[in-house]
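Retro notes
What went well: the complex prediction finally ran end to end.
Inputs used:
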Amino acid sequence: MSCQRADELIHGYLDGELDLARSLEVEQHMRECETCARAYRSQTTLRSSLKDDSLYYRAPEKLQKRIQSSLRKEAKSEVFPRAFGWRWLTVGASLAFMLLIGVVVWRFVPRSIRPSGDELLAQEIVSDHVRSLQMPGHLTDVLSSDQHTVKPWFDGKVDFAPPVKDFASQDFRLYGGRLEYLNNRTVATLVYQRRLHYINLYIWPAEQAVATGEKTTQRQGYNLIHWTSSGMNYWAISDLNGVELHEFARLVQQGPL
Amino acid sequence: MQKQNKLATFEEAVLPHLNAAYNLAHWLTRNDTDAEDVVQEAYLRAFKFFGGFHGADGRSWLLAIVRNTCYTWMQHNRSPELSVPLDDELHEIESKDLDPEALLVQRADTLMVRQALEELPMEFREVLVLRELEEMSYKDIASITDLPLGTVMSRLARGRKRLQLALTNQMHAEVLS
């Protein structure tokens, strides 16, 4: 270790800030170099000169009281901001007004231009349909074209009995069934096949028994038809063309002619 | 009620370090009333930013604020002191420093030490006060002064040499007179 290096490290040594290896090096150097050893001793003397209580300035008592009272004032002004809080009142009023406008707009703007429950559900169904086709083995939990196998399979798995019919003679072959979680509940899903196209038919009990007519939408290239009948909600989705999917929906509702 | 809690928590975490705050402020401003004003201002700032304090070490956190308040305060109120050219002076001192006569062999008188420390440039004074009077680690000093650890050590080394030199000069002068 050079004297130049030791010159600074002596201070780290004095302050107990060096690691063991460095400390040993410094000690070794001081054993060999009288100049550095003397410089170190001089520093310990300096340190002891600084260890004098009267060099430490203690806060006068009145300062603590002064600070505490100004803190109290500050704390109060944080609760009731200056100028009687008018500024905050204004901010609050503006926010309330904006909220009111929002509610008015939401309430009275035609349903068609805001996302409805149906639209959110349609999105959920598209995602589920895509997922069912993408993941191998995910399309069906029970693989059977026999309605008498598929229907009992749902027993005890859902709290309703979905109508399961096969339309093989109309070329909509029952392919199987599975459970899905949609619209915050477990729903029965039937899978039908027409040529190379799959149809997912989601069925769950309707909250209102009122039957509704078919509603058709398209999303991401898929056709969706949904309706309510006999106290059940039905959603059918497929990449099948709209005409054939409509035919399928009619079969489900009315049975084979 | 939440605000009341904030005040109580703040006072509990930060008020016990009032002496440390005042000591640092006094050494930096070198004056009673200025130190009091700076400390009060620092406490108000600390209270405002208390939401950002998550550490365990209230003293370091407060002292960093006290130091910043001092610097801002000095910029506003006076003090060309903040822009002392450091290095030119130092070279001169380091060559003298090799003179064995400049070594401190006996404990210096407190008044003399106080004066010598007060006359040190701010950059050295603050690290010496934090190290010798507050007995803080290099790590804490580094976080308070916003300097790298290595710089803390070299500032301490240079500051101590200056202090030692000032003291030996004065002791010699006394002997001669």
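What we learned: Residues 149-176 of chain B form the longest helix (28 residues).
What to try next: split runs per interface for comparison.
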